[in-house]
C-alpha cells in the first residue's frame, strides 16, 4: 500500500467503513512516550501530535512513561483497548532490538503491536568530555583497551546501549551507566560526571561547537549537516558500529483496519506539512514516511538483521 492509497482509503471510509471508523476519533488520542519530558523523543511526539490533531479534529495528549528501557511505556500500550485512542511513539529499538538484548521482555514485538506509521530517522553520535584524551574512534578504542572499564559511558535506549556493548565486545571495555533520557545525560557529560555519551546527536551539537564536548564519531551512516566535519564510524574503520535508527507510531494489537488507515493517513499528512518539517529538522531528524505495511516490513527486516549479530557477540543488557 502506497502513501497515496492510504489517504484514498481514508477518503472512502464514510462510505465503506463501519460506524466506529466513521466516527473515529470522537475523543482525545493519547501518545505514550517511553522517555522523560524534554528529550528529543518527547519533543518530536508533541510536534507530531499537535499536527495530527489538526487532521483528526481531536487533541493529542502526550503521556511520558519512562522506565525499564522503554518497557514501561510499551506495556502501557499493549494493555490498552485496541480502539486507536492509545498509540506508542517510540524508537525502533523497543521493537527490533530489545527482544534480542534482554533474556525476557514483557511483550512480543510482532504480535503485541499494530504498525501505524514510520515517521523519521535520526543520527546518533559518540561524544567525549574534553578531559578524556581521545579525538577519534581509534584513539577511543585504544584508550579503553589500555584502561579497562575506567571510562564511564552514558546511554539511554537499547539503540545506543547496543553501541556501547559492541565496543566492549570488540575488546574495549567501558563501564555502561544507564540514564532515563537525554535531559539527564547532557548535564552529566558536560560536567564530567561521565566521560562518554552515545545518544541522539541534536542536543550535543551546541556543546561540540563551543568546545565543551568533543565529537568522536557519528554512529549513523554518512555525515550530518549540523556537524559536517565529524566523520562517521564507518569512515574511521568501524563499520560494524554503524546503525540508522528510526521513529514510529504503533498501536496495541488488533487495531481495526479502518482506524489504522485513518491514523496512518494523519501521520503521513503531517510529514508533508512545512511547519512540522521545520520543527522536525531542528531536532536533527530526517523525514522517513512509511505506511503500516512498510513499517511492518521494516520491523521484520531489522529483527532478522540484528538478532544474529547481537547473539553472536553475546551482548545482553540484563
Task: Kindly describe this structure.
The chain has 318 residues and is of the alpha/beta class. It has 2 domains: 3-122 and 244-313, D-Maltodextrin-Binding Protein, domain 2; 124-241, D-Maltodextrin-Binding Protein, domain 2, CATH 3.40.190.10. It is built from 14 helices and 11 strands. It has helices at 3-11, 13-16, 19-23, 40-56, 71-78, 92-96, 98-101, 137-146, 158-169, 182-190, 205-209, 257-270, 274-282, 292-313; strands at residues 29-33, 60-64, 86-91, 113-122, 124-128, 152-155, 175-178, 196-200, 214-218, 245-252, 285-290. The chain has a 6-stranded mixed sheet, sandwiched between helices. A 5-stranded mixed sheet has the order 7-6-8-5-9, with helices on both faces. Helix 4 links the parallel strand 1 and strand 2. The model is unreliable at 10-17 (pLDDT under 50).
Q: Write down the CATH topology of the largest domain.
A: D-Maltodextrin-Binding Protein, domain 2
Strand content: 15-25%
| Measured distance between first and last alpha carbons | 39 Å
CATH top-level class of the largest domain:
Alpha Beta
Report the CATH architecture of the largest domain: 3-Layer(aba) Sandwich
CATH superfamily of the largest domain: Bordetella uptake gene, domain 1
Give the helix proportion (percent range). 40-55%
Number of separate domains: 2
Return Rg in Å.
Answer: 20 Å
Number of strands: 11
Mean pLDDT: 90
Amino acid at each position: 500500500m502506497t502513501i497515496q492509497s492510504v489517504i484514498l482509503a481514508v477518503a472512502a471510509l464514510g462510505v465503506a467503513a463501519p460506524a466506529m471508523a466513521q466516527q473515529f476519533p470522537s475523543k482525545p488520542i493519547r501518545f505514550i512516550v517511553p522517555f522523560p519530558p524534554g528529550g528529543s523523543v518527547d519533543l518530536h511526539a508533541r510536534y507530531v501530535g499537535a499536527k495530527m490533531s489538526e487532521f483528526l479534529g481531536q487533541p493529542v495528549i502526550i503521556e511520558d512513561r519512562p522506565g525499564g528501557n522503554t518497557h514501561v511505556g510499551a506495556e502501557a500500550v499493549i494493555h490498552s483497548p485496541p480502539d486507536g485512542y492509545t498509540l506508542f511513539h517510540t524508537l525502533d529499538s523497543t521493537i527490533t532490538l530489545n527482544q534480542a538484548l534482554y533474556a525476557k521482555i514483557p511483550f512480543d514485538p510482532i504480535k503485541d503491536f499494530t504498525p501505524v506509521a514510520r515517521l523519521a530517522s535520526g543520527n546518533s553520535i559518540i561524544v567525549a568530555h574534553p578531559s578524556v584524551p581521545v579525538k577519534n574512534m581509534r584513539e577511543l578504542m585504544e584508550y579503553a583497551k589500555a584502561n579497562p572499564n575506567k571510562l564511564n559511558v552514558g546511554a539511554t535506549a537499547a539503540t545506543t546501549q547496543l553501541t556501547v556493548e559492541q565496543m566492549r565486545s570488540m575488546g574495549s571495555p567501558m563501564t555502561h551507566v544507564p540514564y532515563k533520557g537525554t535531559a539527564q545525560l547532557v548535564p552529566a557529560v558536560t560536567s564530567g560526571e561521565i566521560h562518554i555519551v552515545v545518544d541522539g546527536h541534536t542536543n550535543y551539537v551546541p556543546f561540540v561547537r563551543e568546545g565543551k564536548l568533543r565529537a568522536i564519531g557519528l554512529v549513523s551512516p554518512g555525515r550530518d549537516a549540523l556537524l559536517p566535519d565529524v566523520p562517521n564510524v564507518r569512515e574511521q574503520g568501524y563499520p560494524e558500529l554503524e546503525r540508522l535508527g528510526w521513529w514510529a507510531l504503533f498501536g496495541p494489537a488488533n487495531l481495526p483496519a479502518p482506524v489504522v488507515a485513518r491514523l496512518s493517513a494523519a501521520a503521513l499528512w503531517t510529514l508533508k506539512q512545512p511547519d512540522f518539517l521545520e520543527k522536525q529538522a531542528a531536532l536533527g531528524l530526517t523525514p522517513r514516511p512509511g505506511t503500516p505495511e512498510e513499517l511492518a516490513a521494516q520491523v521484520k527486516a531489522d529483527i532478522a538483521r540484528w538478532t544474529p549479530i547481537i547473539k553472536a557477540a553475546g551482548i545482553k543488557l540484563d
